[in-house]
């Protein structure tokens, strides 16, 4: 089963992206599951490397890396450019993608979850 997660909210300030990443990580650990995550809008900041958060607080960048080890993580290239986020600033496993990539992923997915 292939599940696509589309995240829109920023990494901090709300917990929507956090919850989407948690679920994606948990689902990706199941043997029969294939997970893809597409970050759009302010969610592209989830994949920024070098995030420094208070002790005991979740780190969205680390969560994106964990999902990328067993799934695929794409970021809206237009959204990255609008926010001044360069490819070199992304955590390992996250990659710039296009709306055409998102359309392909959506068409191939058995389930699409939007956060």
UniProtKB/TrEMBL annotation:
InterPro entries: DsrEFH-like, Sulphur_relay_DsrE/F-like
Gene3D superfamilies: DsrEFH-like
GO CC annotations on file: cytosol
PANTHER family linked: PROTEIN YCHN
Protein name: Uncharacterized protein involved in oxidation of intracellular sulfur
Organism: Sulfurisoma sediminicola
Lineage of the species this protein comes from: Bacteria, Pseudomonadati, Pseudomonadota, Betaproteobacteria, Nitrosomonadales
């Amino acid at each position: 089963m292939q599940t696509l997660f589309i995240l829109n909210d920023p990494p901090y300030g709300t917990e929507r992206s956090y919850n989407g990443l948690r679920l994606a990580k948990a689902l990706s650990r199941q043997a029969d599951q294939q997970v893809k995550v597409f970050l759009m809008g302010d969610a592209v900041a989830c994949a920024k490397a070098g995030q420094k958060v208070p002790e005991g607080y979740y780190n969205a960048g680390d969560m994106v890396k964990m999902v990328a080890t067993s799934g695929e993580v794409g970021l809206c290239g237009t959204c990255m450019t609008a926010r001044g986020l360069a490819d070199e600033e992304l955590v390992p496993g996250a990659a710039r993608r296009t709306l055409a990539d998102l359309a392909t992923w959506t068409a191939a997915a058995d389930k699409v979850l939007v956060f």
